[in-house]
Design a protein that fits this description.
The complex is a heterodimer. Helices cover 38% and strands 14% of the residues of chain A. By secondary structure, chain A is of the alpha/beta class. In chain A, α2 packs parallel to α7, α8 packs parallel to α12 and α9 packs across α12. Chain A starts with a strand and ends in a 5-residue tail after the last helix. The chains are: A alpha/beta, B alpha+beta.
């Protein structure tokens, strides 16, 4: 079986052709250090600044508001810890949601040990926060609201424009982890009143090991790394030139094709067909949903088992079950949307990209129902 | 992550299902942790003449259930009780560290089923088994 069907684009994406092509010169003869004065150094520097401008354009920012870092996690860490540091004279209260990525949740957990206070906004069954709860959670000492643009496990798109507006009205900074959103749905930091935004290259067809932080111009970010002063003194270290240019190329290419209607159509077919399996539930918002995410829970069975059997058919997918993460607790996201433990363990996420085809959807629809049935036949929870 | 043997037992589990004429049934684990094993035994003349299992859980949970039932099938009660979690894991060519609890659960499932058999016969199982497995919740 050589077939490989990749339905895990929310985990990482294949490097897109434009990204691959853009990187090549800098993996070959264009090896100059961007800080060097001679031609191959200047060329590398120009390539980075060109990428910075294009990425700024893509999200409605200015080039001087874009920082290149080592990944989405690094971007989240830098954004949140910087605001905590810069605003600590105003207060130490931070508002977030219950369904953030661990890069945000664990950064906040660390800040809690440093004396910061957290409010985790609850979410409804679709993974949506309540704007009223957000408003009433804001205090005089609130310094930051950090809410993701879209959830990685259930695909829910959060109302970041509204959150941005509330933050602005209350003089609170707003950071959004947009790792799953950029390149999938339109994001404009100016129009959405976002002060800081984090995203990653490898979720949108770029290289791994590159993240982007947008930080509004008037924020004077304390350096993340001290050293040679790269990234306007904020993030020292010789730049990942090939990686950086890959992100600009991948993002430009993606934005040309938004909205991703063909991906949405495949997603909707999967959802419609798989929901005909008894005692199966869609997770996340049925309407405000990322184009590529089809996520489910199947009663009576456990997610890792589904993944192993899918893998035997050459299908790559993921699950928020405990066993797939090595812990005994199912995902905090599935718990936050109110699923009981035993049901949350039976989660499956199929995340689609533009490389997927309707034939591949057919193949999954042919294989998956039998897998569910086989595992249910084995389960003491299934009657 | 998993050995070939684990994958083989996961894909083609032995002794899966229910046993209509079981005279001992044990269930261990809980749905909170994502693993539940129910073991059915038929004991005749102090020997395990037949055995089945139903398991909710990950690949390791299914594979350890399958292997544990294979190891005790046809064995005497005393032999069955001497099967350790380590023996189950070893027979599967090892388990990842975070999955060792599945082999513990498999050992306990067997013991819980035998305990139930003694209970039903009106024999106090504690001196024989040494521990009450039906009340242990997670096997952790």
């Amino acid at each position: 079986m050589n077939k490989l069907i990749y339905f895990d684009n929310a985990a990482t994406t294949k490097l897109s052709k434009p990204a691959f092509d853009a990187m090549l010169p800098f993996l070959g003869d264009g090896y100059g250090n961007p800080s060097s004065i001679y031609s191959i150094g200047r060329d590398a520097k120009n390539a980075i600044e060109n990428a910075r401008s294009r990425i700024a354009d893509a999200i409605g920012a200015m080039p001087e508001e874009i920082y290149f870092v080592g990944g989405g996690t690094e971007s989240d860490n830098w954004a949140i810890k910087s605001v905590a540091e810069m605003k600590k004279s105003k207060g130490r209260h931070i508002i977030t949601s219950a369904i953030e990525h661990p890069a945000v949740l664990n950064t906040l957990k660390y800040l809690e040990t440093e004396g910061y206070e957290l409010t985790h906004l609850s979410v409804d069954e679709h993974g949506q926060i309540s704007l009223d709860e957000l408003r009433s959670s804001i205090r005089n000492d609130t310094i930051l609201i950090t809410v993701m643009a879209a959830n990685n496990e259930i695909g829910t798109i959060l109302p970041i424009s509204e959150i941005g507006k509330i933050a602005r009205e209350n003089g609170v900074l707003f950071h959004s982890d947009a790792v799953q959103a950029v390149g999938q749905i339109p994001i404009n930091v100016r129009e959405m009143s976002i002060d800081l935004l984090s995203f990653s290259g490898h979720k949108l067809g770029g290289a791994k090991g590159v993240g982007v932080l947008y930080a509004k111009k008037d924020l004077h970010m304390p350096p993340l790394l001290h050293g040679g002063g790269q990234e306007r003194g904020g993030r020292s270290g010789t730049e990942n030139v090939a990686g950086i240019v890959s992100v600009a190329a991948a993002l430009d290419d993606k934005l040309l094709r938004l909205p991703l209607r063909s991906v949405e159509q495949m997603r909707d077919r999967l959802i419609k067909e798989l929901l005909t399996i008894p005692r199966t539930k869609l997770t996340g918002d049925p309407v405000n949903r990322l184009p590529g995410i089809a996520s489910f829970v199947f009663e009576g069975i456990e997610g890792e088992s589904i993944l192993l059997l899918l893998d035997q058919c050459g299908i790559c997918a993921s699950s928020g079950s405990a066993c797939s993460s090595g812990s005994l607790e199912p995902s905090h996201v599935l718990m936050a949307i109110g699923l009981p433990h035993e049901i949350a363990h039976g989660s499956l996420r199929l995340s689609l990209g533009e490389d997927n085809t309707n034939d591949e959807i057919d193949y999954v629809l042919e294989k998956l129902p039998g897998i569910i049935e086989k595992l249910r036949d084995m389960s003491p929870l299934w009657q | 992550m998993y050995s070939e043997k684990v994958m083989e037992h996961f894909t083609n589990p032995r002794n899966v299902g229910e046993l209509g004429d079981a005279n001992g049934i044990g269930e261990v684990g809980n749905s909170k942790c994502g693993d539940i094993m129910r073991i059915y035994v038929k004991i005749e003349d102090d020997f395990i003449s037949d055995i089945r299992f139903k398991t909710f859980g990950c690949g390791a949970a299914v594979a350890t259930s399958s292997m544990a039932t294979e190891l005790v099938k046809g064995k005497s009660i005393q032999e069955a009780l001497s099967i350790t979690n380590k023996a189950v894991a070893d027979a599967l060519d090892g388990l990842p560290a975070e999955k060792l609890h599945c082999s513990v659960l498999a050992e306990q499932g067997i013991k819980a089923a035998i305990q139930d058999y003694f209970d039903k016969k009106g024999i106090d199982p504690l001196p024989i088994i040494g521990c009450d497995f039906r009340c242990s919740s997670s096997g952790e």
